[in-house]
Amino acid sequence: MANESYRIEYQPQLVEDTVLWVIAGHPEEKSFRKERNPIYQLPNEEEREENFQVLHERWYDHLGLSEPLHKVLAIWPIIKLQTHKCQVVKARSKKDVGAELYIAADTPGVTDREGRSIAIQVTPELLGQLQNLLTFLRHEFLHIVDMLDPQFGYKPHLPKSENGPIYDRFLQERYGILWDISIDGRLHRRRWLPSSVKGGHWTTFKNNFPGPQSDLEKVFDFFFNNISPKHEELISFSMSSESWFDTSKSVSTIKGQCTLCHFPSFDLIDASTNLPSSIVAEIQNENPNWQSNEPICHQCADLYESRVW
Ligand SMILES: [Zn+2]
Question: Ligand 1 centre and the CA of 135: distance in Å?
Answer without folding.
Answer: 34
